[in-house]
Amino acid sequence: MRWNEADIDARLAAMAEQVTSGYGEATPSLVGIQSGGAWVAQALNQRLATRLPLGRLDVSFYRDDFDTRGLKRTVRPSDLPFDVDGAHLVLVDDVLMTGRTIRAAMNELFDFGRPASIRLAVLFDIGHRQLPIRADICGETLALPPHQRVELFGPAPLTAEIRDIRPEE
Amino acid sequence: MTLAPPPSSRVQLTEDGKLRHFLSVEHLPRPLLEDILDTAASFVDVGGRAIKKVPLLRGKTVVNLFFESSTRTRSTFELAAKRLSADVLNLDIAKSATSKGETLLDTLRNLEAMAADMFVVRHQDSGAPFFIANEVTPRVAVINAGDGRHAHPTQAMLDMYTIRHYKGGFDGLRVAIVGDILHSRVARSQIHALNILGAEEVRLIGPRTLLPTDVEQLGVTVFTDMAQGLKDVDVVIMLRLQKERMDSALLPSEAEFFRLYGLNNEKLRHARPDAIVMHPGPINRGVEIASEVADGPRSVILNQVTFGIAVRMAVMSMAISGQESSHNPEQGGDHGR
Questions:
Q1: Which of A96, B38, B184, B258 is within CB 3.0–4.6 Å of B262 for a Cys-Cys bond?
Q2: How many angstroms separate the Cα of A120 from the Cα of each of A67, A107, A135, B164, B166?
Q3: Same domain, B247 and B159
Q4: Cβ–Cβ of A62/B56 closer than 8 Å?
Q5: Are residues B57 and B186 in the same domain?
Q6: ipTM of the assembly?
């Protein structure tokens, strides 16, 4: 299964409508998780009438699987060009599965300050959750067998496809 | 104890080429050095946060094993480990166990029994960290924090980080290393790192008595005159005159050394106008560097210290990561989302 640029675009448009709603007078900030989530956050922001403050987070130093998988080869600096203290944040990722990345991301965010609120926006939710975490905004929910993943290609244009993973992963 | 370092530093890498111990820059591949610098860039960012700490090495124990005392290097390693959330044990061996007759191996076995995950080793004998790396049980990573006149690889990497930060890269760069090369493990590591990373030219400037005899073999150009040596360089690295290691009449006097090789604004004129000045510290003002330069606009000496913590965090996390992954061969690929 594949999603071309137009397919992804339709899902992003639906998500963009929900991103700013429910905040009243306040304006949320977007935080994309490296690297796919950062692409999605950027693409979402481009669809908004008023651009939001945009940051990116690399959660490599906060992962819970360092003991078994080690450090990722390419770690990029996290960049949050706004004050996290008291901010309303929308955390953005490309694919939500176990929830462990989101937990790592929230731990990292709290080392920058105490946000007023955090919501989660994901392009795909593929199930197999291992933690009590859910998306507030979701582009598409899929029921995938354990050996399949969605892979996002970007940063522009954004496309996606399902691929099989090797058993040991 | 006389210990020669092995000809190859194969002991440093895992089978798939990841860092396992960090003992010497020599013979390491360029992409690995670049990985260290890139990872360090992310840790520099951590130093600017409200909470200057990441949980990466939570539950790991790092032992600073200093057979030769060094307050500065030990403190930056200690701070680096603490910012990675590791527990740190500082052992000043120079003053403790060995003076009671315990051998190095017995000391190591005792520390391993305390379930240490990393030894940061400073030793007066060249090659001692290699010896330790060969002796430790698997799962313990060893970082060389300076051995004899041989190597000081984390200092060299923080210097490379500083150069890349200010100069953007190494292509076309001319770098001069000035002063007491003979006693300097820092200079040796810098020369290897600069050549691996592709600097255009590495120059050594100093009196013949403070230059090793076979130094040209390292891939450097040698100058004994400051004006000629500094001409058009992009980076000037001053070395500390290691008075405590001078056991013979290598120098007429400190004043004479300063007159000929001490960096002041007048001598710095020969370098490029945008040249940066570095020093591994601690500095001897008025011996190898004048205060007007050390505190001047082109000095990046204190920035080196800041970057040093990040570079040590990168090396420590990569080495512990290499230890872990060498026991988990199914490493890599998709992290569970």
A1: B258
A2: 27, 14, 5, 37, 38
A3: yes
A4: yes
A5: no
A6: 0.77
pLDDT in tens, B187-198: 999 999 999 999
Residue type, B290: A
Residue B93 makes CB contacts below 8 A (sequence gap 6+) with: B65, B66, B67, B107
**pLDDT over 80 (residue B1):** no
The gap between the terminal CA atoms of chain A, to the nearest Å, is 21
The residue with greater pLDDT, B137 or A20, is A20
Q: Whole-angstrom Cα distance, residue B277 to residue B294?
A: 8
β-partners of residue B147 are B123, B151
Residue type, B11: V
Any idea which architecture A2-18+29-164 has in CATH? 3-Layer(aba) Sandwich (3.40)
Structural domain that includes position B216 = 153-300
Contacts of B317 in chain A (CB under 8 A): 61, 71
Q: Closest Cα to residue B261, out of B245, B242, B241?
A: B241
CA distance B296 to B282: 17
- How remote is the C-alpha of A148 from its chain's centroid? 19
B118 by DSSP, 3-state: which? strand
One-letter identity of residue B269: R
Which amino acid belongs to residue B283? I
Residue A88 and residue A113: Cα distance in Å, rounded?
A: 12
SS3 B269: coil
Q: With contact defined as beta carbons under 8 Å apart, do B160 and B37 qualify?
A: yes
B174 pairs with which residues across the strands? Answer: B201
Looking at residue B31, which CATH number applies to its domain?
Answer: 3.40.50.1370
Residues of A in contact with B331 (CB under 8 A): 68-70
Phi, psi of A113 (to 5 degrees): 160, -170
- The total number of structural domains in chain B stands at 2
Tell me whether residues A107 and B337 touch, CB distance under 8 A.
no
Are A77 and B44 an interchain contact pair (Cβ–Cβ within 8 Å)? Answer: yes
B159 and B146 belong to one structural domain: no
Do B86 and B18 share a structural domain? yes
* A contacts of B32 (beta carbons < 8 Å): none
Q: Are B335 and A168 a contacting pair at CB < 8 A?
A: no
pTM (whole model) above 0.90: no
User: For residue B332, is it within any domain?
Assistant: no
Whether B145 and B158 share a structural domain = no
* pLDDT tier at B95, thresholds 50, 70, 90: low
Are the Cβ atoms of A111 and B321 closer than 8 angstroms?
A: no
**Inter-residue contact B21 to B133 (CB < 8 Å):** yes
Q: What is the pLDDT of residue B331?
A: 39
Residue among A69, A77, A93 whose CB faces B41 most closely: A77
Here the tokens at position A94 are 């490309």
Q: What is the mean pLDDT of residues A25-43?
A: 95
Nearest CA in chain A to B49: A112
Identify whether the C-beta of residue B1 lies closer than 8 Å to the C-beta of residue B299.
no
Q: A68 and B324 in contact by Cβ < 8 A?
A: yes
